[in-house]
Fold this protein.
Amino acid sequence: MIMTISKTGANPILLWFRKDLRLDDNHALQAAATSGRPVIPIYIREPEEDGSGPLGGAQEWWLHHSLAALQLALGTLNSRLTLRQGDALAVLDKLIAETGAGAIVWNRRYDPAGIAADTQIKKALRDNGIEAESFAGQLLHEPMRLRTGGGSHYKTYTPFWRAFEQSGEPPFPIEAPETLPAPSHWPKSDTLDAWSLLPTKPNWATAFPQMWTPGEAAAQEKLRDFIDGAVDGYAVERDFPDKPATSLLSPHLALGEISPARIWHATRGLPDNIAKDNVVRFRKELVWREFCYHQLFHFPKLRTENWNDRYDGFPWLPDAELLRRWQRGQTGYPIVDAGMRQLWRHGWMHNRVRMITASFLIKDLLIDWRDGEAWFRDTLVDADPAANTANWQWVAGSGADASPFFRIFNPVLQGEKFDPDGGYVRTFVPELADLDRKYIHRPFEAPDDVLKGAGIELGKHYPRPIIDHAMARRCALAAHASLKDDG
């Protein structure tokens, strides 16, 4: 059910965009558009962290282009986007004074800082006689909605998924309005270029446009392409990083250029020749995102503290040099290095490889999962305050429904299983491009003549392993066993 705001009076409505940079299926936008009152779209660059303010460097690049796309889209509705920066309530108060606005609408956010800020802002506005309404739509189900039979929140995914299924189909998405009533005058706006969101010296995002086109229109096109193609076979092929088998919608979802309801709706009524397993598997990925927000909502310290406090005493071995080698894709394990270099080149990494690289950092190098989470948050264009943290804790064994700690990925075997021909490694670790398939995931075992034939000298063209995996596995298991001794 969509709440409404007063349709009386001529005072403008401020439509506050946040991580919902779209016109389609935007409930706050719909409420403003149907009020009959002038609408002033705004975006505020906030200083707070944890989802309310500065994003990682890669996502700032995306935000620049996404806001530019939103500005153009609003132009087709006879509207425009006002950009401001600073404390949100102070900016809103100033805009109210400048425009005579009598109402503010926005779509809810679910990160801890965002919830706290919005609660304070809504109360302050209403205390000053300003209508303030917030709307759902950023998730399929709000994280407080699903409860166990005992009235608690879910701690494991499978029961959460079952409860989600039994709760009924998510609501149908709503269409974008055809026009927005304009105010008699527009407030002044910052220029997007003045925010300096794009990297310059150096411009490490030069390869991003090879893979990404930010904005709502590109998100809709990507969804159509996926439904028309890769969804057929998704259940199996999604695990192979060298195959174009995933939707690539995660960056668009992260900044709300497309809604999860629109994506879910696209999977309804697909032809019988697309196996049900593919649709269910894809939907489960959407619902995993919901589960991550369910965790974050009920455990607000998820980003900084172990969900399972038994892991608070884990004997991490911080090592700045090993962390740097991991970040730069110089570990000597090709599948790990390919993933980390893909991350740097395109601001994104295949999901299977995210698990492999995270396992390597946590369980081979014994480096705190929070160091990995921070690096991903800064370098991923799809960085998400709930999913990024929950997924790192999942690998670390400290999270809700986590992978058992003893599930330690062997980077060689993982590479051979999910990149059997080495195509992924050859793409992102080109110094190994001419290496025989037999050794592409274990160059440190290749005979000298094979290495020479491929133009490789270990330690010069490609690093030797920074750690022996078998030894590292034993150390990791011993470290984990120490928790049992202390517990």
Summary: Residues 281 and 300 are 28 Å apart (CA to CA).
